[in-house]
């Protein structure tokens, strides 16, 4: 179940995404106004954050965890069209209805803001509005790239592209590489592959010297040119 908490003043000072979230352009007076309307919400993996067609009642900063963006096609099928990572904006200001379904792929931590009070705040802070527009365009580009990746028919191409993309999006781990924020079952769900196929492909790439797996979620990319060649 959702767990909401007040937005404490000290949270911004220690926030891991303070320099990358939309509030990065806010000075302390604007941050105080943002905190006044905000709540902290934690959700478990598998929780639907918002469903397509729901009223767009809030926006949020994703502080930790990963969300999947699910779109329903005209024939009723659903497709994952992207992932949201820490620092990304959840929801859209200045729209009345959610366009996609957002589901927590891992446990997530959000700074949640009611949409209308947030819109009022943004109208008095053009720099933040400009940053949100840039983020929206970047998110659209990511969605297009994601759909292209999922459209590939071969599992090695999907896995290679995914590993390279995660290196770009995730924080480096101690000792090099990065830690996947999801297990292999969730990775398979995202890529449209079975957990067996994911495990088999990772093992094959490890034997070929393209990656190292110090642990199940710790990934080291040893041969990026080869991975990029496979990814296409």
Automatic annotation (TrEMBL):
CDD domains associated with the record: CAP_ED, HTH_CRP
Gene3D superfamilies reported for this sequence: Jelly Rolls (2.60.120.10), Winged helix-like DNA-binding domain superfamily/Winged helix DNA-binding domain (1.10.10.10)
Record-annotated Cyclic nucleotide-binding domain positions: 22-92
Domain HTH crp-type intervals: 153-225
Keyword annotations from UniProtKB, A to Z: DNA-binding, Transcription, Transcription regulation
Signal peptide, first to last residue: none
Short name of any one Pfam family annotated for the protein: cNMP_binding
PANTHER family (alphabetical): CRP FAMILY TRANSCRIPTIONAL REGULATORY PROTEIN, FUMARATE AND NITRATE REDUCTION REGULATORY PROTEIN
Name by which UniProt lists this protein: Crp/Fnr family transcriptional regulator
């Amino acid at each position: 179940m959702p767990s909401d908490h007040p937005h404490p003043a000290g949270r911004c000072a220690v926030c891991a995404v303070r320099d990358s979230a939309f509030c990065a352009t806010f000075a302390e007076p604007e941050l105080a106004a943002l905190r006044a309307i905000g709540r902290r919400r934690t959700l478990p993996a598998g929780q639907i954050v918002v469903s397509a067609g729901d009223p767009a009642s809030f926006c949020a900063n994703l502080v930790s965890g990963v969300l999947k963006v699910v779109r329903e096609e005209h024939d009723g099928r659903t497709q994952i069209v992207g992932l949201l990572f820490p620092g990304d904006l959840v929801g859209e200001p200045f729209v009345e209805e959610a366009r996609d379904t957002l589901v927590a792929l891992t446990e997530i931590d959000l700074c949640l803001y009611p949409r209308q009070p947030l819109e009022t705040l943004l109208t008095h802070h053009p720099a933040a509005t400009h940053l949100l527009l840039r983020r929206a365009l970047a998110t659209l580009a990511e969605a297009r790239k994601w759909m292209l990746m999922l459209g590939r028919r071969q599992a090695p191409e999907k896995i290679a592209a995914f590993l390279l993309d995660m290196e770009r999006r995730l924080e480096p781990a101690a000792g090099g590489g990065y830690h996947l924020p999801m297990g292999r079952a969730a990775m398979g769900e995202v890529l449209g592959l079975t957990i067996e196929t994911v495990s088999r492909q990772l093992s094959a790439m490890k034997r070929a010297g393209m990656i190292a797996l110090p642990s199940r979620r710790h990934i080291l990319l040893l041969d990026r040119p080869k991975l990029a060649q496979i990814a296409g």
